[in-house]
Design a protein that fits this description.
Blueprint: H1 2-21, E1 31-35, E2 42-45, E3 59-62, H2 67-70, H3 79-91, E4 97-101, H4 104-110, H5 122-126, E5 131-134, H6 143-153, E6 158-161, E7 165-170, H7 173-195, H8 205-216, H9 222-237
Parallel strand pairs: 5-6
Antiparallel strand pairs: 1-2, 1-4, 2-3, 4-7, 6-7
Helix pairs in contact: 1-7, 1-9, 3-6, 4-7, 7-9
Length: about 240
């Protein structure tokens, strides 16, 4: 069990480092979490550490026993991280891993009156009918706001937070991070297309849904391959992420 948990921490630490390389983080804010296999306990990043410096040992384990105590220790875990991730992990069984950022394009998308990405390319089609919209921004993600977020996610895999940012989930670290990466790419394409002021070439519901399903059932596990390649690069260039 200890070996499995240690590997989980290394995987999660790698995604922080890669997010920093992609400039999808924001100062020392934003947070990722991953549940321990077979448990509702989860790891989340320690407060105040830049994504580019996060190591496996900087991930704090939140349990039923220590959660209340951690609420009074904002120097250990950002309160918004504790509330948002606790609420969603408790409410949504499918959200074993959660990735929340205020990345450039996803956040810009979240400010639109209609933030739903139209299916205009393969990346936008990946998320067709698979993103919930939390439309009632009510301030920072503290306890009351976090419960509303968890309820809004429902059985969807991901959630766009109006006037706020993006939250993706997955059964594994690889799956959740892959979705985060591609959501940002999809949002960039969509907003760039909108900026041309030309009519969008939107595909039909049938084609969009078919493409989304093909992504989900594709025989090659691109999410795990992506994370594996990230770790190979980090093993050479930033091996301390595993410490």
């Amino acid at each position: 069990m200890q070996m499995e948990i240690s590997e989980l921490q290394k995987e999660l630490a790698a995604t922080f480092r890669w997010t920093a390389r992609l400039n999808m983080h924001e100062g020392v804010a934003n947070h990722f979490s991953a549940c321990v296999p077979g448990s509702s306990d989860f790891y989340v990043n320690k407060a105040g550490i830049h994504f580019s410096n996060i190591k496996a040992s900087d991930l704090i384990l939140v349990t039923k026993e220590n959660k209340e105590e951690l609420k009074n220790k904002p120097d250990i875990i950002d309160p918004t991280a504790l509330y948002i991730h606790s609420a969603i992990h408790e409410k949504a069984a499918h959200a074993r891993c959660i990735f929340h950022v205020h990345s450039k394009y996803a956040t810009a998308l979240s400010t639109l009156k209609d933030p739903v990405m139209k299916p205009i390319d393969q990346n936008t089609m990946m998320f067709y009918n698979r993103v919930s919209a939390f439309k009632e921004f009510g301030g920072l993600g503290l306890e009351e706001e976090s419960i509303k977020m968890a309820n809004a996610l429902g059985n969807k895999q991901h959630m766009l937070l109006a006037n706020h940012g993006i939250l993706t989930t997955g059964r594994t670290v690889a799956e959740g991070f892959n979705s985060l990466y591609y959501f940002e790419r999809a949002a960039e394409t969509y907003l760039t297309a909108l900026s041309t002021n030309q009519e969008l070439n939107v595909v039909s519901h049938e084609i969009a849904e078919k493409t989304a399903e093909e992504h989900e059932n594709f025989p090659t596990d691109f999410a795990n391959l992506f994370l594996s390649q990230i770790r190979i690069i980090l093993d050479k260039e930033e091996p301390d992420y595993k410490n």
